[in-house]
Every structure is written in structure tokens, then in C-alpha cells.
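Progress note, sequence design subtask.
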């Protein structure tokens, strides 16, 4: 009997507020709907509505059970999701006290049910004071990570940690009911879960193990438990199950393990997206009571009727889906891993097709063979560009090892040849992998090494009830659109709804699943440990059978957090013991018992293990890139210098923060918030000192204004828009640099990087975070660079020590060849030459007529400048197709149009190894620039566009990379003129259009619209007279018209957002802006839970600082009069970790 659809009365602690709603429901949502409070995510609403989380809320419903339900021998109340501390009453009798968000509860209710009206009451208690009180009363102090505005006691509540506030979101700490509420009546045993494991046998076949859990009536039960794969005739298993009354009384009963042998020849393998298909096979698990079997048999003997069978208990049935696959986490010495990844089955170094050009030497840009190709047999590893900062580079025209005049060929003394591996190695000398300490970390699915490309996913919303099926599906779709194949479910949020794992199974998304613990030590008293064990076992049984789940993690950053706090540093023995008991013995023990075939890591990051059987951790600095996975955050180093990134084996977190896109930020704020350093801006920045750290990074690469403060409101707004542009572009360039490096490190023997999961995919509010997709689903510029670097084929241009390197990276399981179009462009046409007269470009059958188009361009002062485009499209013909209908173009910095010839161009053909990275071109910058008279490092740039030949597994793919020889602030740019034209209605939800530049290059052009959706590419570079065609796709379920996009489209570019060279200077500290930031940070800093105070008083103290933050501006202005606030803000250390 479902109860969530009833009209529930909802009241607060003193009865002053009464609401009505069906379930799921959260009071904070209902109060907003009724107009009693504002949106808690609008402006300072988090502060103004915090009282809701500190109140007690009672949900009550009156229902009349059916006679049929009352007649059942057992009736249980099932609660699928209660947030978090609750007392549950049925007709005034206390059924249970709940305190775990992450558990489903089943409570016996039969003895308290009555005929007629019944009242179910669920009272929700505020989590904040309870957590604070428990922290104070613990026998010894356990520290908690602090964030701006958070409550530092989340580790004492089994409620999502982020709900107390994190450095990317608010701390609503709301209570409510997010799952179903129902009454379950039964006379015989009923199935409640079916846990499915699979293992590959030595003969190649699969063995399924199915372990069911059941509820049984007080008298017990006996019957037949069976499991069957209906699509595979004859593949089933069955066993008798007898449940004694004593077992039934203890609750869930675990049945015998049913084993089904599945011949490999009878099934198709399940593959990650991009590697194959995702076939899923239906598994039916059934419990049939003996009484039913006996009745059916008796009927057949008498007259074939089913009267007796109809009167007997019905079988209980559950269905699951199985994807047959194997998964392995490869942790082995680098020499062994290199042998597999670079010259064994995992690598594609053997290629019978010799690259075009054929020459081994590359003397200048005009006569190039392939760098690293030796005698048509072997590839070089990526080399000098990956070396340490003190590396030495060749400066002659000979551009690869083995071509030096006095060096020997393979097998001789050449230091680049690894005799043991039988392949060319990178920088460092012979037998490099043998001499490097460390271990690999990568996944193999069905025996194939997988380069993991993905991100960390956080909860879909601040309020669990708002995580609609549409939002979940849309988020997964955006991950796939960004070419991801793995998502890490972060330990500070929730175990995801079933729909998420179903979608991952269907679409081939691998899942790294953590249990819900993050960034601080946790208690280990008996009560807490029992609660955790019940939670984790329930979640393993629910999630563990999904083929998409390929690794379990015990926690996020708790091992490394032992280095963060004074308490853990001063008493390591105590906290290491606590850690080991919880994450290795308890959680690790459950993993070994229930999912031994699935890899498990007790923490992320970590140094892996010395042994898995028995499980022995490798203790030490968990950030050590030689072992395990790495979380990398460094806000001080130049993020556009690849040498500032570690040679990690697997990067499970990395990111750079930014604010949301302008339309999303605008919707959550008011105009007084649209100024750099305003209280409204800083309130939505939850990472200490981040505004100053980010601005310092911008100064490394861009020309900034001397002050971000405007003399008028309009001027302040213009500077805010300028700041936001820099904020987004810098994030994108940081990510592009890091990802490019780690993608090519897959083929460097001392790196062997095989995974990037960046922080973070999505957002829970319109505030600063590390996301690439903001709260309203819009892509920041960063996401387009993610999409580029995660393509199956990528070309990269790398500048290092005065040399230009070109790499290709391929995830294809077969080798191929690629055509490289190498071009040098000037940043401005010589003597202001006009572009050639273009013909009309048609974007499809519904192309717009050639009319003048108004384009809104954000100028240096933040104005929207209207420019009139030519009466025709800006280039002669559409870009030529690069392959057959199956062609897939990777997003790229747009290729030049045919009528915008570069200053210099060459085309060569190179070999592309399978599942590897290779360096294919190398030249000094001087060589490059000598190709074009008058070209200098500040007036020209290099573009490489690579197009592959299709293979059995991949279609033709195209990738483009631009290389600038100096920082953007040092480029000699002229003001560009950008026009739009060729608008076409490609589909009801998609409109495409052309962008074109006139005689000056337009760099880092960002298109934006108030419409919800995303472009296919963005942040493009347009050479003089160059063009790009972009497509805007509306959010799922919505449409867009040409008129709507034209009316809302704006463009921003580098020239319009950098200060002119003659007026730019390094900004001095702006006292008022810094003081505002410092005052907001100080006001929002969480106060530690002081011992001796009542929980209610503590809760009040939590409110105080946040309320003060809302009125911080007067205080900030006063602080600006003296140096202390400025000094305090400047002296805060830059934190290398994201989380504290």
C-alpha cells in the first residue's frame, strides 16, 4: 500500500506553520512555493532561510488500510529515503528512531495497525545541532574540514557531508522525505534484494552468483529460490530455502548462493562507451513458496484447475540486468606495465604502413618525415617535451634520437633504445621503466586497457527531492556529450538513485563508486560502526551488480587528511587505528565478502597497496604520483606550463575554479552583486582566498586593468563582465594544458597516465566551483576544451624550451594514418588587406537568406557593440567534408576557411599508433617563424589540423590545435571585426550559424546566449578572414528558433577583454575589493563546536556569522581604511588541495 501519494500535513516545531503535500517533500521547497520564504539559492537566501533547517518538522498522514492488508500475517512499514534524524510513530507508538540518510528502513508495523483510520507520523529533527552535540560529547576531539559558511561537524551525522556546506556549494542542511513510503503485507517470504556477482572462469566462461535477501513472516517459510536468464534457454539455477521462525524474527534473511554457468559463446561482452556495445541480459530471481508448488501440483492431479493455486501465496519476483564483462585494476611495476601498454596487446606500435615522407631527419619545416619513426618498424615514445625542467634539447636540424650523426641504431648504444622492452623510450636513458620506482594504475575491461576520461559527479541538487528523472538523465547525457567514459561518485554526497546506474549500464559509462565519507576522520564507536556496516552492505547489494560499477572506494581524501589537522598530526597512532578499523577492516571486509571481483581502494588519493591478499596498505604521502591515484590542485604555479603537473599514473581529481556563465549567475543575483569583490560575488565564492589566487593567475597570461573597481555602477558592471570572461578563459586554458599533458603521458614510461577524472562535472547552485557545466546546464568554455581533449583522436601542439612539438593521441584499438595540415597564420592581414568577396554559405535546407546580421560583441569597456556584417556569408564555400557520412569531427579551435589562406602551409601524412600517444613533428620556433618573412613570436601562430583514416572501430576523425609562441598578453593584436551569418534551423532544437573575422584575428571568441543549452564548440580562434560554423542545441526537451538565438546571442573575445598594452599595468592591491573578500571570508568562517554549550545555542552561533556576511559591505569599507584586512587576505596561504 503506497502512502506517499496521500495528502500529508507538515508542521513546524511550535505549530505556527502548517503545510500540505504529497511525498517526496522538503519543507524548504514547500515554504518557497507558498511564498513564505524566498528561494534559498537566490542571493543571500541560504542565510535568510537557515532557520528552516534548524526547526523540527512533523509529517503526518491518515490512511485506512484495506481488509486484505490487515489480513496478512506480516505488515512492514518501508521507508525508502528519510533525511536524516527522525522519529517514526504509528497510531502514537514509536516504531523507530532513524539517523541515516543512506539507508532504506523496513519496520514491523502489524501489531499497531487497526481497522479504520490510522495515523502515521514522522518527526524530523534538525541535523546541525545533533551533529554538533555529538562532536562535543565524543571521548576525544575529531577534527572536521572547514569551509566558508559550513558546519564543521558533518562527520558525526550519516547525512551527506556537502549538505553542511562545501567549497563549491551552500550548506542548507535541509530535512525532508525524498523516498517512497509504503506498507508491505505478506503471508510468505518476499524478495527484497538480489545481489549479482560474476567471474570469468579459466575456460573463458562466466559464472554468475546470485544472492537474494528476503523478508519472511514470523512463522518462517520454505520454498524454492531460483534464478534464470530467459534469453539464454536452459541457463537457470534453483535451490530449496527453509527459513526458521528465529531467522525471520531477525529481519532480512540471506538465501543460498545460486550459481549459473554461462558459456562465453552464448553472450556478447559489455564494453565501455567507445569500445563496443552494451548488451544487457534480463535475470529473473524468484521465490516460490512450497505451499504454492503443492497447490499447483494438487490442482493438476484433480482437474487442472488453478483454484487452489490462486488461493495460495504468489511467488515473489525481482528482475535485474546483467552485462557480462571482466574488470581489472592493473597495479604493477612500471616496466611490466610499459611492456603491456606500449609494446604488447595494449599498444599499437606495430604498423605495416610506413608514414608518408619516409625521411628520418626533419631539416626544417619544408621537408618533414615523421619524427620518431625508425626503419618503418618502431615508434619513439613522447620524449623531450615531457622531461624534467633541466632537460637538454637538440638544437640542430636533426629532430629525433637515432638521427644524430654519431649515434647508433636500435640495439646499439643509442640512449633512447630500451633493449629489454624492444621499443624506443622517452627522455631518461636506457631501460627507463626498469629504473623508475612506482606502479601503474589503470583499468582493463575484457582484457583491454582503458584510458579513463571523465569527471567527479556531485549530487544533482541541494535538495534530494529535486533530483528529478529528467535532471539525472540530462546530466548523464551531458557527460556523454563531453566524450566521457567514467564518472566518480564522490564520497561527500549520496549513493546515486537507481536510474543513474541503469543509465550508466545502458550507455557504457564506467562508475567509480565511493562510500559516503569525505575529508575528515570519523568515529568508530560500536553504534556508529554498526550503522555504517548496515548502510554499506545495503548499498553494495543494491549497486554492486551493475556492470558499470568497476571500482569501489572507501572514502574521499581521508587518508591524506590525516596530514591536515593538528589533532591527527599529534596523535597519528589513534587516528590511523580509527581509519584502519573503519575503512580497511569494516568497509574493506564487506567489499571482500560481497564484491571480491571488483577492485577496491580504501581511499582516494592513495598509494595503493603492497598486497591485496592479505590487504596491506602502502602508507606514506597519499599525493605521491609514483603510486595509486592523485588529486592535484595548485593555484600558485603557472597553470599553462605543463611542467607544473605531476607525472601521475591516474588523476582522480584535478580542477580550476570559475563562476557560472553570465546568464546563470544573473538569474541568481541582483545588479548590486555584479561588481568584482561585491558581497554578492564573494558570498558565492566558498573557497578561502580564491578571488585573489585566481586574479594572480590571470596576471600571468593576460593584461588586466589596474583596478577592478569602477567609478560608476555601469563601469563596475563592465569590469565584472571583463573579469568573468578572464575567469572562464583562464579555467579553460588551465584544463586544456593539464589534460593535454596527461593524455600524452599515456606513452611515457615513467608516467603511463591512464586516467583523468576532473573535479567537477555539475553544480548545485549558481556559485563559483570547479565545474565545467553550471547549475542551469550551460557549458562554460572549459567544457569545450574537455570535449576536445577527451576525443578518441587528438592532435596537440606543445611549446617547450624554444621548440614546437606536435603529438597525436589515439584511443583507437587499431593503428591508422593521419593527414596533418600545418599552417602559420598572421594575427593581422598585411597592410589591412580586405578579405575576399565570399559567396553565400548554406547551413542546410533551412538556411537563412543572406541578410545583414547584428552581432552583439562585448568590448573592452563591457559595452555591446553592434557591427553590421556583409550582405553575404564571410567565406566562399562551406568547409569541405573530411570523410564519409560516418565522419565524427572532434571539437576544435575552428579550422580556417578556404578563402582565408594561411601565410604558410604544408600537408604531410603520419602514422598514428593504436591506444597510444606519439610525437610526430618537432622543430625549433625559429625554424617555424623563418618560414614566413616578417613573422615573429608575437605576430603569428601555428595551427595543426589532423584528419585520420577510418578504421574498423573508429570513423574518420578531425582534431585541431593552435600554438601561440608567447603569452596572450604579449600578442600583437588588433581590434577584430566579427560578423555572424548563415543562420539555419538544423532541427527543432538546433540552430547553426557562421562566425567570421575580418582582417584581424579574433582569439578566444566565446559565444553566449540566455537560452538554456550548449554549443557544439566554443572559445574558437578565427584567423584573419577566417570563419567557423557553430551549432546551438537547446536543453533536452526544449526547442530553439533562429529568431530566438539571433536575439540573444552575444560574443566576447580576447581583444575586447584585455587592457591595451599602453595602458595596462600590474594591478596593485585594491584595498576595498580585498577587504570585502576578507570580511566575507572572516564572517563566514565556521565557528568550531565549543564544549559545554547547548546544541541549540551552537546552532544559533552557526547562523550568526552567515547573517553578518549579508551585511558585510559597510564593514569592508571601514576595513579598507587600514592595512590589516588587506594583509590578512594577502597572507593566507594558497592551498594546494581543493577541499580545505
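Output:
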Amino acid at each position: 500500500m503506497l502512502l506517499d501519494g496521500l495528502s500529508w500535513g507538515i508542521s513546524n516545531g511550535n505549530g505556527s506553520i502548517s503545510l500540505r503535500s504529497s511525498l517526496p517533500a522538503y519543507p524548504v521547497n514547500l515554504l518557497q512555493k507558498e511564498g513564505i520564504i524566498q528561494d534559498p539559492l537566490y542571493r543571500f537566501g541560504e542565510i535568510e532561510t537557515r532557520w528552516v533547517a534548524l526547526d523540527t518538522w512533523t509529517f503526518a498522514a491518515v490512511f485506512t488500510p484495506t481488509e486484505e492488508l490487515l489480513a496478512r500475517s506480516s505488515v512492514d512499514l518501508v521507508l525508502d529515503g528519510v533525511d536524516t534524524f527522525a522519529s517514526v510513530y504509528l497510531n502514537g507508538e514509536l516504531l523507530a528512531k532513524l539517523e541515516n540518510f543512506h539507508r532504506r528502513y523496513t519496520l514491523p508495523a502489524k501489531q499497531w495497525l487497526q481497522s479504520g483510520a490510522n495515523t502515521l507520523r514522522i518527526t524530523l529533527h534538525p541535523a546541525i545541532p545533533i551533529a554538533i552535540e555529538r562532536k562535543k560529547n565524543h571521548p576525544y576531539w575529531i577534527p572536521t574540514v572547514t569551509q566558508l559558511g559550513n558546519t564543521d561537524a558533518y562527520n558525526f551525522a550519516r547525512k551527506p557531508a556537502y549538505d553542511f556546506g562545501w567549497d563549491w556549494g551552500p550548506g542548507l542542511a535541509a530535512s525532508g522525505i525524498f523516498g517512497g513510503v509504503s506498507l508491505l503485507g505478506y503471508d510468505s517470504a518476499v524478495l527484497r534484494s538480489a545481489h549479482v556477482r560474476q567471474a570469468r572462469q579459466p575456460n573463458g566462461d562466466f559464472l554468475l552468483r546470485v544472492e537474494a535477501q528476503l523478508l519472511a513472516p514470523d512463522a518462517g517459510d520454505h520454498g524454492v529460490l531460483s534464478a534464470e536468464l530467459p534469453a539464454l534457454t536452459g541457463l537457470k539455477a534453483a535451490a530449496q530455502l527453509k527459513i526458521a521462525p528465529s531467522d525471520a524474527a531477525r529481519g532480512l534473511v540471506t538465501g543460498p548462493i545460486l550459481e549459473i554457468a554461462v558459456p562465453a559463446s552464448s553472450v556478447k561482452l559489455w564494453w565501455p562507451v567507445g569500445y563496443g556495445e552494451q548488451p544487457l541480459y534480463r535475470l529473473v530471481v524468484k521465490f516460490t513458496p512450497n505451499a504454492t508448488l503443492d497447490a499447483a501440483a494438487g490442482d493438476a492431479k484433480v482437474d487442472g484447475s488453478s483454484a487452489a493455486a490462486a488461493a495460495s501465496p504468489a511467488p515473489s519476483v525481482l528482475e535485474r540486468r546483467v552485462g557480462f564483462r571482466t574488470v581489472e585494476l592493473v597495479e604493477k611495476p612500471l616496466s611490466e606495465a610499459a611492456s603491456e601498454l606500449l609494446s604488447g596487446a595494449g599498444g599499437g606500435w606495430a604498423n605495416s604502413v610506413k608514414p608518408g615522407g619516409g625521411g628520418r631527419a626533419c631539416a626544417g619545416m619544408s621537408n618533414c618525415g615523421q619524427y620518431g619513426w625508425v626503419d618503418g618498424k618502431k615508434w619513439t615514445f613522447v620524449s623531450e617535451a615531457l622531461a624534467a625542467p633541466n632537460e637538454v634539447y637538440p638544437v640542430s636540424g636533426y629532430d629525433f634520437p637515432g638521427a644524430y650523426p654519431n649515434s647508433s641504431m636500435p640495439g646499439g648504444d643509442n640512449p633512447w633504445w630500451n633493449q629489454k622492452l624492444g621499443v624506443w623510450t622517452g627522455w631518461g636513458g636506457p631501460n627507463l621503466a626498469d629504473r623508475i620506482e612506482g606502479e601503474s594504475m589503470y583499468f582493463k575491461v575484457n582484457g583491454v586497457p582503458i584510458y579513463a576520461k571523465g569527471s567527479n559527479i556531485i549530487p544533482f541538487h541541494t535538495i534530494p527531492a529535486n533530483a528529478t528523472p529528467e535532471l539525472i538523465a540530462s546530466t548523464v547525457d551531458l557527460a556523454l556529450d563531453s566524450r566521457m567514459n567514467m564518472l566518480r561518485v564522490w564520497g561527500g554526497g549520496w549513493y546515486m538513485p537507481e536510474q543513474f546506474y541503469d543509465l550508466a549500464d545502458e550507455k557504457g559509462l564506467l562508475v567509480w563508486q565511493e562510500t559516503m565519507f569525505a575529508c575528515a576522520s570519523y568515529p568508530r564507536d560500536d553504534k556508529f560502526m554498526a550503522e555504517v556496516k548496515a548502510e554499506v552492505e545495503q548499498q553494495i547489494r543494491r549497486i554492486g551488480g551493475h556492470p558499470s560499477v568497476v571500482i569501489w572506494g572507501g572514502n574521499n581524501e581521508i587518508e591524506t587528511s590525516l596530514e591536515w589537522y593538528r589533532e591527527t598530526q599529534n596523535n597519528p597512532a589513534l587516528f590511523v587505528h580509527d581509519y584502519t578499523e573503519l575503512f580497511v577492516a569494516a568497509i574493506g571486509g564487506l567489499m571482500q565478502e560481497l564484491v571480491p571481483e571488483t577492485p577496491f581502494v580504501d581511499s582516494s588519493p592513495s598509494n595503493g597497496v603492497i598486497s591485496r591478499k592479505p590487504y596491506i596498505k602502502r602508507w606514506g604521502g597519499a599525493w605521491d604520483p609514483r603510486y595509486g591515484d592523485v588529486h592535484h590542485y595548485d593555484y600558485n604555479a603557472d597553470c599553462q606550463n605543463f611542467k607544473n603537473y605531476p607525472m601521475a599514473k591516474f588523476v582522480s581529481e584535478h580542477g580550476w575554479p570559475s563562476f557560472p556563465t553570465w546568464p546563470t549567475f544573473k538569474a541568481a543575483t541582483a545588479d548590486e552583486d555584479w561588481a568584482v569583490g561585491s558581497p554578492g560575488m564573494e558570498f558565492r565564492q566558498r573557497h578561502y582566498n580564491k578571488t585573489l589566487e585566481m586574479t594572480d593567475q590571470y596576471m600571468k597570461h593576460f593584461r588586466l586593468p589596474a583596478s577592478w573597481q569602477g567609478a560608476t555602477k555601469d563601469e563596475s558592471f563592465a569590469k565584472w563582465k571583463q573579469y568573468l570572461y578572464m575567469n572562464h578563459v583562464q579555467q579553460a586554458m588551465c584544463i586544456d594544458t593539464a589534460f593535454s599533458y596527461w593524455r600524452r603521458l599515456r606513452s611515457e614510461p615513467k608516467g603511463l597516465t591512464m586516467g583523468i577524472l576532473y573535479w567537477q562535472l555539475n553544480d548545485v547552485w549558481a556559485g563559483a566551483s570547479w565545474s565545467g557545466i553550471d547549475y542551469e546546464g550551460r557549458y562554460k568554455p572549459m567544457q569545450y576544451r574537455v570535449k576536445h581533449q577527451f576525443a578518441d583522436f587528438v592532435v596537440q601542439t606543445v611549446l617547450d624550451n624554444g621548440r614546437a612539438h606536435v603529438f597525436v593521441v589515439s584511443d583507437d584499438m587499431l593503428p591508422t594514418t593521419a593527414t596533418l595540415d600545418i599552417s602559420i597564420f598572421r594575427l593581422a592581414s598585411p597592410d589591412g588587406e580586405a578579405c575576399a568577396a565570399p559567396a553565400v554559405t548554406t547551413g542546410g535546407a533551412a538556411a537563412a537568406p543572406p541578410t545583414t546580421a547584428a552581432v552583439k560583441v562585448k568590448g573592452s569597456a563591457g559595452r555591446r557593440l553592434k557591427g553590421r556584417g556583409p550582405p553575404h556569408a564571410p567565406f566562399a564555400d562551406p568547409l569541405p567534408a573530411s570523410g564519409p557520412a560516418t565522419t565524427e569531427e572532434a571539437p576544435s579551435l575552428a579550422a580556417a576557411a578556404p578563402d582565408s589562406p594561411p601565410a604558410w602551409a604544408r600537408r604531410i601524412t603520419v602514422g598514428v599508433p593504436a591506444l597510444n600517444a606519439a610525437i610526430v613533428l618537432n622543430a625549433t620556433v625559429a625554424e617555424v617563424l623563418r618560414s614566413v618573412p616578417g613573422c615573429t613570436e608575437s605576430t603569428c601562430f601555428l595551427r595543426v589540423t589532423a584528419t585520420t583514416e577510418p578504421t574498423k572501430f573508429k570513423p574518420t576523425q578531425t582534431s585541431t590545435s593552435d600554438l601561440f609562441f608567447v603569452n596572450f598578453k604579449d600578442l600583437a593584436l588588433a581590434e577584430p571585426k566579427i560578423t555572424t551569418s548563415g543562420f539555419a534551423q538544423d532541427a527543432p532544437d538546433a540552430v547553426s550559424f557562421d562566425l567570421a573575422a575580418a582582417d584581424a584575428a579574433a582569439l578566444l571568441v566565446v559565444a553566449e546566449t540566455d537560452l538554456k543549452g550548449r554549443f557544439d564548440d566554443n572559445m574558437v580562434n578565427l584567423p584573419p578572414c577566417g570563419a567557423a560554423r557553430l551549432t546551438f542545441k537547446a536543453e533536452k526537451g526544449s526547442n530553439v528558433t533562429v529568431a530566438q538565438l539571433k536575439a540573444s546571442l552575444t560574443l566576447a573575445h580576447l581583444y575586447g577583454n584585455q587592457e591595451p598594452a599602453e595602458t595596462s599595468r600590474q594591478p596593485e592591491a585594491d584595498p576595498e575589493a580585498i577587504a570585502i573578500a576578507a570580511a566575507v571570508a572572516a564572517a563566514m568562517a565556521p565557528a568550531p563546536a565549543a564544549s559545554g554549550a547547548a546544541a541549540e545555542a551552537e546552532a544559533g552561533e552557526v547562523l550568526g556569522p552567515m547573517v553578518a556576511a549579508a551585511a558585510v559591505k559597510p564593514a569592508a569599507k571601514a576595513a579598507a581604511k587600514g592595512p590589516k584586512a588587506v594583509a590578512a587576505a594577502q597572507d593566507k596561504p594558497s592551498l594546494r588541495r581543493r577541499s580545505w
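The radius of gyration is 31 Å. Work on this subtask will continue into the next period as scheduled.
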